[in-house]
Amino acid sequence: MSRMFPNKPLIFSNSVSFGLFSYWVFWLSFDGKLVFSAPLIIGLIGVLISLISLYRANRIFDTAESLALSGLISSGITFVFWLVIFGRHPYMKELVPIILILLSLILAFRAVRKSENITLSKSVILCESAIGFTFGLWFGREFEGHTRILLTIVLILAIISRLILIWAIDKLGPPSLGIRRRISLFLLSISLGLMAFKYDIENRPPWSNEVVYDLHLASRNLLPIVLSWLLSTSIVLWFIPKLENKPL
Amino acid sequence: MLLPTFTLLRQMSYYSNNLHPYKISVKNLYFLQVIARPSKYDIQLRAVMEGDNLKVEKLFSLSPLLPLLVLTSISFVIRLWGIGDAPFWINEADNSRQLLFDTPRDKIAWTVAGAGLYLGDVIIRELVLFFIPHEILHNGEAGLRIPSAFACSISIPLVYKLASRFCESDMSWIVTLSWAFNPFAIDWSQDVSTYGMWPIWATFLLLATFRFTSSIKRNELTLLDWILFHSAMIGVITSNLFILMISAALFPHVVSTIILQYQERKERLRILLCAYGPHFVPGLIFTYTTIKPVFDPSIHDNSWMSSANWNTPLELMLILFPNPESIGASVIAILLIIGMLKNLHRIGRTSPILILQNEYSALFLAGTLQLFCFLFLQLLDSPSWATRYMLHLIPIWLILIAACISPIDPISSAEGKVNYYSFSNLGKAVILILTVLTIFSLGPATDMGGQDTRGAWELVSEDYDEIEIQVILTQPSEYFYIFYLEIFELEPDVFEGSWYDFTDDELVELIPLETDSVHRIRLEGHNDINLANFLAEDYFPARESSSKGMVVEHWVRING
């Protein structure tokens, strides 16, 4: 808890400043123009306030985790806002998994520090979702012949993060969410990644019918079946534990 | 029943010190069989209760692996016999386009045709083609035909495995032998097509499903059962509609087994959902996407096909036992009728759910559903039949016939009665004789197709002059003939094709003013009035010649 600010206003201020700062970063990474605009200045001031508060905080780790989580979530929301307003972003393929990986690592840190299995569960789910989504997107692009090194690096980072979580699992025991439901969520995230790949290659948002580039015929033939397989299996695995009296 | 089991296990140690029993089957109260696998042998021990005493007989039998390997190899070698002699007929010429594509992705995309995705077939073909040297692949027809021949050969062990579920051991071998040397299967597995690969998917599906339901009946479902069942279902959905029909035919068997085995509704739902839940929607999507073009006349012109008729089951019998002509099939038909009459008592007053649960009924449904579907299409007056679509049904029908004549009968085996003149032994002898007669009738690969596309190119090459400006127009599309264009090393100035007669605009674009001669390759019976009229102004027909099913016209410039 901060001495300088009460917790909630600090988190709000931190969220707004991270949102503004990431908005500026998104533009910078979009057009490469280094513009000293209001979002940058306000964002930096807010981040500075957060850092000072952190320095003066009693429970430094608690505050740092809360600030990091709120900052990341705020950046994620700003990214969605950016996409809706301005369309495609050159790094949109990597940003979603990176945010998920970072959230997962922060939660894992908190889980280990507080010995909370529930938090560890959330962390593992986020990390596995990041792997699934990135894998779906990466595999689709590779199949289509659009290799992207940056995406491959993000996929490797996601896998490394999951390996790091093994250490946390060793300490706290297996996540409370059953393996079947975790596989279900993993398959769901792969299918989301494959859908993202489709709209990415077709260069259009899901709600638009204007296809700029066509998928390869093989992708067009196989994608509906593969997607339906992943989603059906995901649904079955999610509901099976409810019907289960004993393990299969 | 435990006492004899323990006694038997104790006695087993007498035969071998390192004997590890892996399967104990209790057929009935008087008969108990233990099969143990020490190393490379299967040892069967049969225990029969004689009054209060347990009599143990030791039956040694060789592992089937080696004989199956030999049989598969011989069958493959026979399929290779003269495999490159016959020219491509038009469908093979169409399928030879696979050489045009560089990436597996392109091959996956363009192999998708009416009625299926053929993903597994593409994978098998690519794997086999990988080992075939470039020279063989690009210098004759053999290279492209080998994958299908290989795939059909490796279905032989699967057929044995399936047959041994339904028939006595020696009958299983006769069925396998009959399948390995079936002339129809050999002929169609020497074709550049996927037909030779269908038996793999069909038998694998049947084996995986029967293993799955057997485990349900024993209440011993293992992870391997699930993996095999789901792998088979994935194979089905990425294969074609004909294999999907077998899966549909097996569905009632699986459902009835689940209903009979599990008492609680929740438990039944769980197993059913685990088995078919992941495949239901993909199956529907697959069916819709594959049926749609098949029934769209603008995409697939099926008018050349004849309709299925009520003689179709007889056709299948003739395909199964072709030698001696008609007599073989007739003899088997008589044996089949007697066998069915002998086994009628087994059905008796059984309830429908028990009939569906029976593996024999499931196999019968799997082997006949396709025929029923096509006969139904015939009622709708839809032309749809070609016997090569039945290739994967041949092993199923062979097993059905064998099971009808010589089914596994635990009671008579347990009683230990050996009747050399039994109906079962007579049936085995007849099928074996017919199979041996068939084997002796085998020869090198025959020319089955209706068109000699290579012959057409030989005719073109006779008149081809590389100094002149040459145009080659084909019917159908030019990619049908790329293979022979490379083989004959022709480099025409224009090489184009069309399924239909060319329009005037197309011809103006395709035939430059300075063209010296035009070669036209077309299927026999195709009408080319527009092209003939267009060329008649400046060219004269120097030669019209034909190879089997193909016509080659050579037009030369007037005063050229």
Summarize the structure in words.
The complex is a heterodimer of chains A (248) and B (560). Chain A has 248 residues and is mainly α. Chain A folds into two domains: 88 residues, no CATH class; 158 residues, no CATH class. Chain A is flat. Chain A starts with 6 loop residues before the first helix and ends in a 5-residue tail after the last helix. The relative contact order of chain A is 0.09. Chain B has 24 helices and nine strands. Chain B has 560 residues and is α+β, with helices and mostly antiparallel strands. In chain B, a hairpin with a 4-residue loop joins strand 2 and strand 3. In chain B, the strands form two sheets. Chain B has a five-stranded mixed sheet with strand order 6-5-7-9-8, with helices on one face. Chain B has a four-stranded antiparallel sheet with strand order 1-2-3-4. In chain B, helix 7 packs parallel to helix 10, helix 11 packs parallel to helix 13 and helix 12 runs antiparallel to helix 13. The longest helix of chain B has 30 residues. Chain B folds into three domains: 61 residues, Roll (Nuclear Transport Factor 2, Chain: A), CATH 3.10.450; 377 residues, no CATH class; 105 residues. At the A-B interface, helix 8 of A face helix 4, helix 11 and helix 13 of B.
